[in-house]
Amino acid sequence: MGKITSMPASANVDQLFSRLEAMLGRIEQLLPAPPGEPDWNASVAFRWRVQNGRSSLLPVDRPHAIRLSDLRGIDEQKGLIEDNTRQFVQGHPANNVLLTGSRGTGKSSLVKAVLNRFSRQGLRLIEVEKGDLVSLPDIVELLARRPERFIIFCDDLSFEASEVAYKALKSVLDGSVAAAPENVLIYATSNRRHLMPEFMSENLEYKHVGEELHAGETSEEKISLSERFGLWVSFYAFDQDEYLKIVVHWLAEFGCADSAVVRAEALRWALTRGSRSGRVAWQFARDWAGRHGKEVIELKRKSVKLAGARRARPR
Fold this sequence. Notes:
Distance between the termini: 130 Å
Number of helices: 10
CATH superfamily of the largest domain: P-loop containing nucleotide triphosphate hydrolases
Number of domains: 2
Shape: elongated
Number of strands: 9
Radius of gyration: 28 Å
Mean pLDDT: 78
Low-confidence stretches: 199-206, 214-218, 294-315
Helix content: 40-55%
CATH topology of the largest domain: Rossmann fold
Strand order of the largest sheet: 2-1-4-5-6-3-9
CATH architecture of the largest domain: 3-Layer(aba) Sandwich
């Protein structure tokens, strides 16, 4: 009867390690790759995108070219944001900013305008959508190694009661063991002051302690998120006169003349939209310029020819 030979123990161990390495290699292919460094010279604005489990910073080919001087009727808000951003760019202490208020009043445009104002001084903007806020710690870690100053921009930010992404935002703002880097701030816009919905039932949680009124735990949790923004900037709806001033400004940018007829049309436009906001004023100016563009171009050409004729006329 023949002998049964056994494989040496060392051979079994080698075979086991070999199989484990092969298994780990297959698992690594399924895991998301760490975000790579973008071409920082490609743009002054970037978008954080997650596709097929892979995250990356993509340069924005054509950043919005709006200027601070284009934003009318919000001088106080402009001053606050411009001063805070200037402090940040110059390396001084500055605050995270929450811009809240009426729709179409210039919240998002103001953030884009300060980017244009300070981009030559090293300011960069990273746009992050609400669904990707869970990646904020990774984004901050990537930016902390850079010499530029970064604004992480979260536009139209609000959370429903069932969402948990706001916890990642709270952690980055103020609540993590790791200190926030000095070259990163968060600017967020929202129509909600506290970023989360408020319900009538939450009023029942308030308690009277002597002469004081104390909020319930649910309200405290919601308020704690907005309180982590050091600077609150509120925006309000425009009155008719301010709305018309914005209309006139944008008409001039499009090369259209101001008139009583134009203003009457602008008011009708606002009435159909149910709003006298800066956005509505800009949209009306675009529509008016588009419908009268040929006349405007012809008028410009005639004025240029007339001016040239005057200059060429002998004395």
